[in-house]
Structure formats: C-alpha cells, structure tokens
Amino acid sequence: MGTQEVHALAGVDARIDEGEYVAVIGPSGSGKSTLMNVLGCLDIPTGGQYLLDGEDVSHMNEAQLADVRNRKIGFVFQQFHLLATMSAQRNVELPLVYAGVPAHERHERSLRALERVGLVERADHRPNELSGGQQQRVAVARALVTEPAMILADEPTGNLDSSSTEDVLGLFRELHAAGRTIVLITHEHEVAEEADRILVMKDGELT
C-alpha cells in the first residue's frame, strides 16, 4: 500500500501429513484466511513452494488450480453455499458435474455421501427445509463426494448453535477416524481443541 509492503504471510513453514486433523487459530488479521486461500489453491503464493498431495501447485495457472481444487480439496464454509433451488442431493452432485462424471454415477456417489453424513433420507429436501446443522452436513457431503485428499473447513461452526456445532464436530471426528485429512480454520479455542494439532498464527507468522 503506497510505499508500505505488507506480508499477509511471512515465512510460514508447515507440514501436514496424510490423515492428520489440524486446526489453524489466530486473531482477525493474523493471516488465517490468506493461509486458507493458499492451502485451498484459491491464491498463489508470491514466494516459496506449496506441495499438495505430492503435487507442486505453487506456479499453476487458474485452469490448473481449478482442476486441483475439484480433485483434491473438499471445501466446507461458514455460509454453507448451498443453491436454494436445488435438493440436497443435487447440491452434493455439483462437484461431480464440474468433473464430467456421468449422471448415474453422480446419483450413486451423492447418495453415498449423504448417507455418510446421516442425511440420505433428506436427499430430496431443499436447503430451506433443513436446519442449519443439516445444511452444514449437506455441505460436508458435497466436500466428500469427490473423495478429496483434504477437507478444508473455514469457520464451519460459525453460524451454528451449540447443538449443531457438536453435531458437525462429531462428523469431523468420524471422518478423521476413518483416515481423512482435515484442516480446520477457526477463531474458537474450544473448536480448535478438537484437532490433533493446533497451529497458532499472529501477524502472518506461525507462532
């Protein structure tokens, strides 16, 4: 900004192994969102290297990054990002549509993903017919449907009441127990404590 150079991330060095459950915590402005955007291949780092599932994504173009996002990362956001006019099942199918998966296979895989989050009986319901916790579980099913290398959850309990929060965190515990890699971005210490390891950020650095 003008003559002032701001490093949103300053020399962050971290390794997350397959099957780990890691939380990233820190105050507003600490660099959590930028780190999440880099991990999720939404932003390209201006320096250094990022290996995702053994693949160097540091210098890929936008089309290549979009392909990596669709194949290797399942996103769960605070706002759910479900399409209101579509059923739960159609929302879960969307990443498979982008991947060019045939309709019959999309149907089977989306039902399996909903079954994993305990919502297969609500497959035909639209988001406004589901509670907040159920909508977030649909979002988790959508994140799982491509069998990604990593689930990246950005403040996934931020819009949920305490009961729905426990519901979603319980689901993450089950996914982790089944061997899924989870990276959870949060500002809530009690949520971060669900993880095996907590990375604390301050002023763009891991402290």
From TrEMBL:
Entry keyword set: ATP-binding, Nucleotide-binding, Transport
Molecular functions per Gene Ontology: ATP binding; ATP hydrolysis activity; transmembrane transporter activity
PROSITE patterns: ABC_TRANSPORTER_1, ABC_TRANSPORTER_2
Top-rank taxon, per record: Bacteria
GO cellular component, one term: membrane protein complex
Domain ABC transporter: 1-207
Protein known as: ABC transporter ATP-binding protein
